[in-house]
Amino acid sequence: MPRLLFALALLCMLAALVVPGGAGAVQGSRYHEGVSGTAGVVATESPAAARAGRAVLAKGGNAIDAAVTTVFALNAARPQSCGIGGGGYMLYRSPDGKVRALDYREIAPAAFRNDTLVPPGLHKTFTGHLTVGVPGTLAGMASALQRFGTITLPEAMAPAERLAQNGVHVTTSLSGAMGRRAKDIRLFRAAAGIYLKNGAPYAPGDLLVNRDLARTFRMIMRDGIGAFYGGPIARLIVRDMRAPRDSGTTDAGLLAVKDFKAYRPLWRTALHGTYRGRDVYAVPPSTSGGTTMLELLNILEGYDLRAMGEGSAQAITAISEAQKIAWADRGAYTADPAFDRQPEAQLLSKDYAAQRRAQIDLNRAQVFQPGSFPAGPTALGAGADFNPHGSTTHVDVVDARGGAVSVTCTIEQEFGSAVVAPGTGLLLNNELTDFSAPGTANEPQPGKRPRSSINPTIMVQSGKPVLVAGAAGGSTIIMGPTLAVLDTVDFGMTLPQAVDAERFDDQGTNRLMIEDTRIAPSVLSQLTSEGYSLTRQGEYGVAPRMQLAGLAPGPAGLATAVSDSRSDRGALAVPPSAPPPTPPRGR
Predict the structure, then answer these.
(1) Nearest 5 degrees, angle CA 101-CA 319-CA 481?
(2) Selection from 253, 213, 249 nearest residue 233 by Cα
(3) Is 445 part of a structural domain of the chain?
(4) Which of 86, 125, 295, 402 has the fewest CB atoms within 10 Å, measured from its CB?
(5) Which H, E and C letters describe 61-130, residue by residue?
(6) Which range of residues forms the domain containing residue 215?
């Protein structure tokens, strides 16, 4: 009798956890509701950075103002992931419905060659001066403010300067990242002097002060971005590149002052697709995220995923096989469009998706080859992702007028190259390890932007941005927003349910990374029998780490933001008494 009562109690508990509207989804132990309000919301991995963004919204700033302020604050509050020593991508939907994409990706210096990273050296550990590309975050944020913001660059940087000068309390995730990269950080005295405490990681709760970074911010606030792009900050970085006396290494870098002076962020035409009647917007190459996601969604539009059921073997197989097809095309074609012609129109064609869908067998895992286009570019050798340790951070903002920003900031892996040029206080990226081998579409070239997986996404329904999405986690980023679209559209999940839902990812080799605890054992057995090799990640894996926000499709104007419990939670709503945001300049 006690066993029967226990079984009944367990069944009742599981039934209570089933996500309403999600056929097979079960809420995890870290499920949380997020935040909601009508005066604006911010979602990020950093509570301190989220407070900076929310304060801007509360004073009447718009989504661009808040997003840019949050990105700068992340430089002090989550330095392992984001900063002006890196780059990224932004997607902006203005209140009038226009969508713009901003590419502020790092670029290879003029002295970089396609075989620069081939010989042995410290760069093979994704560390050191040779891996550093020309940073784009500062130029990108300044450009976004200039075109669509209502506050000045010094106003946007002021919270970050205060956080760096006065200190931030170290989060559990930052302490853990310090521990994972301590060996590399110790190679560079300037980095170790800031990000290690007596040679060891800071403990959670310790105060991290970075007065060199605060000084760098004040110089930019006073003199403008020219202080960084060719001015004294660039000269400090280049001096360290040429003669890294501060480190116990001899790995000289290739950045020159002229590389900084030549850098420009690029406003690009946003990618636009549709999925079951919704408009889906994404960022085009040089990132592969948008093209890959939209191709994948086009393929899946031909299946009735809702009838298959969330968490079913058939649905997981359909999604995984579609991902592998899109991944094959990604490796063969996607790269910096200034160097490699991109077959975007072909890859995003519904007819092409139907052709590729016909190759899928829902009872068998396959390995797919890239498609070919008689009138398009020739597929090159698969551009494999060399650095498996990518770690970025993402911010979503929705303001009271319906303006929406999805922005991802990165220095590549945790702590980037681990290099801090003495006197600057800022960590430099190691984005040049995102290039692939010579002879591929993503091969290294001087002045080229390495392919990224970053995937800022905005989905619009009934004229409202109902899903503003993005993720962190290297090449796993792409499937974050993709699964968010599927979970909300096909499986009827709310934004908090979509953030919590189990993740899976197969990047082309039938090795399926899967958060398996909430998947039925019979489903896992079926996937194995189909030919998948399962990499089981338990209830929650490490990545992708998602941030979601969006307006409810109804007339109330209620916005929701939710941060992923797989990392620090920094979702905040603006109090309803805040003034409405100032309309963007909209140039």
Answers:
(1) 30
(2) 213
(3) no
(4) 125
(5) CCHHHHHHHHHHHHHHHCCCCCCCCCEEEEEEECCCCCEEEEEECCECCCCCCCCCCCCCCHHHHCCCHH
(6) 35-267+393-438+455-573
Q: Tell me the mean pLDDT in the region 94-120.
A: 96
> pLDDT tens across 75-91, in order?
999 999 999 999 999 99
How far apart CA 114 and CA 429 sit, in angstroms, is 19
Beta carbons of 508 and 368 less than 8 angstroms apart: yes
Alpha helices in 252-312 (DSSP H): 257-262, 289-300, 305-308
The Cα 228–Cα 201 span in angstroms is: 29
**219-267 pLDDT per residue, tens:** 999 999 999 999 999 999 999 998 766 666 778 999 999 999 999 999 9
- State the chain's mean pLDDT as an integer: 92
368, part of any domain = no
For residues 48 and 168, is the Cβ–Cβ distance under 8 A? yes
Confidence at residue 390, expressed as pLDDT on a 0 to 100 scale: 64
**CB < 8 Å & 24+ apart, contacts of 110-114:** 110/256, 110/258, 110/259, 110/262, 110/446, 110/447, 111/254, 111/256, 111/446, 112/254, 112/432, 112/444, 112/445, 112/446, 113/444, 113/445, 113/446, 114/438, 114/443, 114/444, 114/445
Rounded CA-CA distance 194/79 in Å is 11
pLDDT at 19: 40
* Opening angle at CA 472, ends 469 and 476, nearest 5: 100
User: What is the C-alpha R_g of the chain?
Assistant: 23
Q: What is residue 18's predicted lDDT score, i.e. its pLDDT?
A: 42
State residue 555's pLDDT score: 73
What residues contact residue 153 under an 8 Å CB cut-off, 6+ apart? Answer: 141, 142, 145, 220, 221, 224, 225
Q: What is the CB neighbour count within 10 angstroms for residue 123?
A: 22
Which of these is catalytic: 287, 392, 410, 457?
392
Residue 389 has pLDDT above 90, yes or no: no
CA-to-CA distance for 504 and 543, rounded, in angstroms?
10
Tokens linked to 167: 């200190």
Angstrom distance (rounded) from CA 272 to CA 269? 9
For the chain, how many residues are written?
587
Question: Considering the entire predicted model, what is its pTM?
Answer: 0.94
> Helices in 424-514 by DSSP H: which ranges?
479-489, 495-500
Look at the alpha carbons of 170, 416, 110, 337 in this order and tell me if their dihedral is positive or negative: negative
Q: Helix, strand or coil for residue 445?
A: coil
Whether residue 538 lies inside any domain: the answer is yes
Query: For residue 301, what pLDDT is reported?
Result: 98
Helix (H) or strand (E) holding 43: strand 40-43
Per-residue confidence band for 12, with pLDDT thresholds at 50, 70 and 90: very low
The answer to whether 581 and 60 have CB atoms below 8 angstroms apart is yes
Task: For residue range 414-466, list pLDDT tens digits in order.
Answer: 999 999 999 999 999 999 999 999 989 999 999 999 999 999 999 999 999 99
Domains held by the chain: number = 1
Distance, in Å, from the CA atom of 212 to the CA atom of 233, rounded to the nearest integer, reads 11
Rounded Cα gap, residues 96 and 238, in angstroms: 43
For the question of residue 44 being annotated catalytic, the response is: no
Q: What is the CATH number of the domain that holds 535?
A: 3.60.20.40
